[in-house]
Amino acid sequence: RCGYVAIVGRPNVGKSTLLNHILGQKLAITSRKPQTTRHTMLGIKTEEGVQAIYVDTPGLHKDNEKALNRFMNKSASQALRDVDVVLFVVDRMRWTDEDELVLDRVRHVPCPVILVVNKVDRMEDKRQMLPHLEWLTEQLPEAEVVPVSALHGQNIAELEKVIAQRL
Ligand code: GDP
Ligand code: MG
Questions:
Q1: Which residue among 56, 103, 118, 140 is buried most deeply as judged by most CB within 10 Å?
Q2: Domain extents for the chain?
Q3: For the whole model, what pTM was predicted?
Q4: Mutational test site, ligand 1, from 13, 16, 17, max ligand atoms within 8 Å of CB
Q5: Which residue intervals make up region (G2) (predicted)?
Q6: What's the fold here for domain 2-166?
Q7: Residue 17 Cα: closest atom of ligand 1
Q8: Residue 7 pairs with which residues in a beta bridge?
Q9: Contact 114, 87 (CB under 8 A)
Q10: What φ, ψ does residue 34 adopt, rounded to 5°?
Protein backbone atom coordinates (compact mmCIF):
# COMPACT_ATOMS: atom_id res chain seq x y z
CA ARG A 1 0.00 0.00 0.00
CA CYS A 2 1.15 3.47 -0.84
CA GLY A 3 -0.31 6.94 -0.64
CA TYR A 4 -0.15 10.59 0.23
CA VAL A 5 -0.77 11.72 3.77
CA ALA A 6 -1.47 15.43 4.26
CA ILE A 7 -0.64 16.87 7.65
CA VAL A 8 -2.66 19.93 8.55
CA GLY A 9 -3.19 22.03 11.65
CA ARG A 10 -2.54 25.54 12.90
CA PRO A 11 0.97 26.59 13.97
CA ASN A 12 2.22 25.08 17.24
CA VAL A 13 -0.05 22.06 17.47
CA GLY A 14 2.99 19.81 17.01
CA LYS A 15 2.99 18.86 13.32
CA SER A 16 6.78 19.01 12.95
CA THR A 17 7.32 17.15 16.21
CA LEU A 18 4.91 14.44 15.07
CA LEU A 19 6.60 14.02 11.71
CA ASN A 20 10.05 13.98 13.23
CA HIS A 21 8.88 11.15 15.44
CA ILE A 22 7.26 9.18 12.63
CA LEU A 23 10.22 9.60 10.29
CA GLY A 24 12.80 9.18 13.04
CA GLN A 25 14.78 12.15 11.84
CA LYS A 26 14.69 15.90 11.70
CA LEU A 27 12.79 17.13 8.70
CA ALA A 28 14.99 18.36 5.92
CA ILE A 29 12.28 20.59 4.57
CA THR A 30 9.92 22.71 6.57
CA SER A 31 7.56 25.07 4.91
CA ARG A 32 6.52 28.34 6.43
CA LYS A 33 5.90 30.40 3.33
CA PRO A 34 2.57 30.09 1.58
CA GLN A 35 3.03 27.61 -1.22
CA THR A 36 1.73 28.09 -4.70
CA THR A 37 2.48 24.52 -5.66
CA ARG A 38 0.07 21.78 -4.66
CA HIS A 39 2.23 20.05 -2.08
CA THR A 40 5.53 20.28 -0.29
CA MET A 41 6.94 16.85 0.35
CA LEU A 42 8.02 16.45 3.94
CA GLY A 43 9.18 12.85 4.04
CA ILE A 44 8.57 9.28 3.00
CA LYS A 45 8.33 6.27 5.27
CA THR A 46 8.45 2.77 3.87
CA GLU A 47 7.88 -0.11 6.24
CA GLU A 48 6.43 -3.60 5.92
CA GLY A 49 4.93 -3.04 2.49
CA VAL A 50 3.41 0.31 3.38
CA GLN A 51 4.73 3.53 1.90
CA ALA A 52 3.41 6.78 3.30
CA ILE A 53 4.37 10.04 1.63
CA TYR A 54 3.87 12.93 4.03
CA VAL A 55 3.03 16.23 2.42
CA ASP A 56 2.23 19.77 3.39
CA THR A 57 -0.52 21.66 1.58
CA PRO A 58 -0.56 25.35 0.61
CA GLY A 59 -1.24 27.74 3.46
CA LEU A 60 -4.62 29.27 4.13
CA HIS A 61 -5.10 33.00 4.16
CA LYS A 62 -7.43 34.62 6.61
CA ASP A 63 -8.46 37.54 4.44
CA ASN A 64 -10.75 35.95 1.89
CA GLU A 65 -11.69 39.34 0.39
CA LYS A 66 -8.56 39.64 -1.68
CA ALA A 67 -8.68 37.87 -5.03
CA LEU A 68 -5.21 36.38 -4.67
CA ASN A 69 -6.07 35.00 -1.25
CA ARG A 70 -9.30 33.54 -2.54
CA PHE A 71 -7.32 31.86 -5.29
CA MET A 72 -4.78 30.53 -2.80
CA ASN A 73 -7.51 29.26 -0.48
CA LYS A 74 -9.22 27.49 -3.35
CA SER A 75 -5.98 25.86 -4.39
CA ALA A 76 -5.34 24.88 -0.76
CA SER A 77 -8.71 23.14 -0.63
CA GLN A 78 -8.10 21.45 -3.96
CA ALA A 79 -4.73 20.21 -2.75
CA LEU A 80 -6.49 18.35 0.04
CA ARG A 81 -8.50 16.48 -2.58
CA ASP A 82 -5.28 15.13 -4.07
CA VAL A 83 -4.27 13.10 -1.03
CA ASP A 84 -5.33 9.73 0.36
CA VAL A 85 -5.46 10.53 4.06
CA VAL A 86 -5.62 13.80 6.00
CA LEU A 87 -4.10 14.08 9.47
CA PHE A 88 -5.83 16.97 11.23
CA VAL A 89 -3.61 17.75 14.20
CA VAL A 90 -5.05 19.65 17.17
CA ASP A 91 -3.65 20.55 20.58
CA ARG A 92 -5.80 19.00 23.26
CA MET A 93 -5.29 22.07 25.48
CA ARG A 94 -6.16 24.83 23.08
CA TRP A 95 -8.72 25.51 20.36
CA THR A 96 -8.42 28.79 18.42
CA ASP A 97 -9.87 30.63 15.43
CA GLU A 98 -6.99 29.25 13.37
CA ASP A 99 -8.08 25.70 14.21
CA GLU A 100 -11.53 26.69 13.03
CA LEU A 101 -10.09 27.77 9.65
CA VAL A 102 -8.36 24.43 9.25
CA LEU A 103 -11.55 22.64 10.25
CA ASP A 104 -13.46 24.45 7.50
CA ARG A 105 -10.96 23.10 4.99
CA VAL A 106 -10.97 19.59 6.36
CA ARG A 107 -14.74 19.31 6.70
CA HIS A 108 -15.47 18.51 3.08
CA VAL A 109 -12.46 16.49 1.99
CA PRO A 110 -13.47 13.26 0.26
CA CYS A 111 -10.70 11.12 1.77
CA PRO A 112 -10.48 9.71 5.31
CA VAL A 113 -9.61 12.22 8.03
CA ILE A 114 -7.75 11.22 11.18
CA LEU A 115 -8.18 13.63 14.06
CA VAL A 116 -4.86 13.59 15.87
CA VAL A 117 -5.31 14.96 19.39
CA ASN A 118 -1.76 15.86 20.39
CA LYS A 119 -0.05 16.71 23.69
CA VAL A 120 -1.98 14.19 25.76
CA ASP A 121 1.08 14.00 28.02
CA ARG A 122 -0.05 17.35 29.37
CA MET A 123 -3.24 15.85 30.72
CA GLU A 124 -2.89 16.10 34.45
CA ASP A 125 -6.34 14.70 34.87
CA LYS A 126 -6.85 11.96 32.32
CA ARG A 127 -10.55 12.75 32.06
CA GLN A 128 -9.71 16.29 31.13
CA MET A 129 -9.77 16.63 27.35
CA LEU A 130 -9.94 19.32 24.79
CA PRO A 131 -13.23 21.07 25.69
CA HIS A 132 -14.11 21.23 22.03
CA LEU A 133 -13.40 17.60 21.36
CA GLU A 134 -16.99 16.40 21.62
CA TRP A 135 -18.17 19.23 19.41
CA LEU A 136 -15.27 18.61 17.05
CA THR A 137 -16.05 14.93 16.62
CA GLU A 138 -19.62 15.92 15.79
CA GLN A 139 -18.25 18.22 13.07
CA LEU A 140 -16.18 15.36 11.65
CA PRO A 141 -18.40 12.34 12.25
CA GLU A 142 -16.40 10.08 9.93
CA ALA A 143 -13.02 10.94 11.42
CA GLU A 144 -11.15 8.48 13.57
CA VAL A 145 -9.82 10.12 16.77
CA VAL A 146 -6.29 9.16 17.80
CA PRO A 147 -4.83 10.77 20.94
CA VAL A 148 -1.03 11.03 20.87
CA SER A 149 1.96 12.68 22.43
CA ALA A 150 4.28 13.58 19.57
CA LEU A 151 6.90 14.74 22.02
CA HIS A 152 7.03 11.50 24.00
CA GLY A 153 6.07 9.15 21.19
CA GLN A 154 2.92 7.97 22.94
CA ASN A 155 0.47 6.11 20.70
CA ILE A 156 2.35 7.00 17.49
CA ALA A 157 2.61 3.33 16.48
CA GLU A 158 -1.18 3.10 16.76
CA LEU A 159 -1.53 6.25 14.64
CA GLU A 160 0.71 4.77 11.94
CA LYS A 161 -1.40 1.62 11.98
CA VAL A 162 -4.57 3.67 11.45
CA ILE A 163 -2.87 5.59 8.62
CA ALA A 164 -1.74 2.36 6.92
CA GLN A 165 -5.28 0.95 7.08
CA ARG A 166 -6.54 3.93 5.11
CA LEU A 167 -3.90 4.07 2.39
P1 GDP B 1 4.03 22.91 14.48
O2 GDP B 1 4.05 24.41 14.38
O3 GDP B 1 2.63 22.41 14.35
O4 GDP B 1 4.97 22.23 13.56
O5 GDP B 1 4.45 22.57 16.00
P6 GDP B 1 5.87 22.07 16.56
O7 GDP B 1 6.11 20.64 16.20
O8 GDP B 1 6.90 23.05 16.17
O9 GDP B 1 5.58 22.12 18.12
C10 GDP B 1 5.21 23.33 18.78
C11 GDP B 1 5.57 23.22 20.26
O12 GDP B 1 4.77 22.22 20.90
C13 GDP B 1 7.02 22.82 20.49
O14 GDP B 1 7.50 23.54 21.61
C15 GDP B 1 6.94 21.34 20.80
O16 GDP B 1 7.99 20.89 21.62
C17 GDP B 1 5.61 21.26 21.54
N18 GDP B 1 5.00 19.92 21.43
C19 GDP B 1 4.80 19.21 20.29
N20 GDP B 1 4.24 18.02 20.58
C21 GDP B 1 4.07 17.97 21.91
C22 GDP B 1 3.53 16.98 22.82
O23 GDP B 1 3.11 15.89 22.45
N24 GDP B 1 3.52 17.32 24.14
C25 GDP B 1 3.98 18.51 24.60
N26 GDP B 1 3.92 18.72 25.92
N27 GDP B 1 4.50 19.45 23.80
C28 GDP B 1 4.54 19.19 22.47
MG1 MG C 1 6.12 23.03 12.02
A1: 118
A2: 2-166
A3: 0.88
A4: 17
A5: 35-39
A6: Rossmann fold (3.40.50)
A7: 7
A8: 87
A9: yes
A10: -60, 135
